[in-house]
Amino acid sequence: MKMLEGKVAVVTGGTRGIGYAIVKAFLEEGAKVALFGSRQETVDKAIASLKAENAAWDVYGDCPSLTDYKQVEEAMQKVKTHFGKIDILANNAGVSAREPLYDYDPSAFDKVMDLNVNAVFYCAKAVAPIMKEQGGGSIVNTSSMVSIYGQSAGCAYPASKFAVNGLTKSLARELGKDNIRVNAVLPGVTRTDMVAALPPEMVARISAGIPLGRVGEPEEVANAFVFLASDKASYITGATLSVDGATQV
Asked: Which residue in 51, 48, 2, 8 sits closest to 28, CA to CA?
């Protein structure tokens, strides 16, 4: 039996990179998936790509503004109406930045925190009553290795991921009584579009600092989401799982 057979999942930021890999992995493991993206055209493109791989996959798309709680709540209700339930939420949408403090526009800092923290809270708040009513569920948040180490510029991103870890641990304690598990995955350097666009010599230099000698693949991060979302992780909650090749920054 597949690990997510009969489950319904919502994946935010599901149109590319790690998010797309999560959607695909969930579908491969038997889940029905609602993927959220920032624009309808990217949502439609992602769904078309997935359907081209397997026409039998049951995937649905939407593009609510994740920084608008009303839109998030309405989108979650639409998923429930469409599929009948929501078992899994993968809070993956996020934005990064590398500006040094001296040049950091406060509005840019707010933008990072809004999508990386507020949206995680909004999605969890909107989906928790649905999960509680049906007897439980699993929320898996995308954090980052920089939530442990920080980074040399762009302080909003590690600050936001520290906050995601805090939300994860606190919500795990609060929602455990409702059989809702909450965990986080902390990816390291992963071969997303940004890394793929780097010169090979730069990727080699980055890889040299990783004990496993290479950057991670989106599918490897997605596998952690599958496990934490599944019943195989039924006694795991409040965990922050690093998927970074033992990278030390």
From this structure: 2
Q: How far apart are CA 148 and CA 52, in angstroms?
A: 39
3-state secondary structure of 148: helix
Active-site annotation holder among 60, 122, 157, 235: 157
**Chain centroid, CA 145 distance in Å:** 14
Whether 77 and 123 have beta carbons less than 8 Å apart is answered as no
Residue 171 pLDDT > 90, yes or no? yes
| Coil/strand/helix, residue 164 | helix
Our measurement of the distance from residue 82's CA atom to the centroid of its chain's CA atoms, rounded to an integer in Å, reads 22
pLDDT tens digits for range 187-202: 999 998 867 776 788 7
157 belongs to the catalytic site: yes
Name the band, by pLDDT with cuts 50, 70 and 90, for residue 249.
low
**pLDDT tens figures, 112-155:** 999 999 999 999 999 999 999 999 999 999 999 999 989 888 99
Place of tokens 């995955």: 185
Other residues' Cβ atoms within 10 Å of the Cβ of residue 136: 15
In DSSP terms, 185 is beta-bridged to: 142, 241
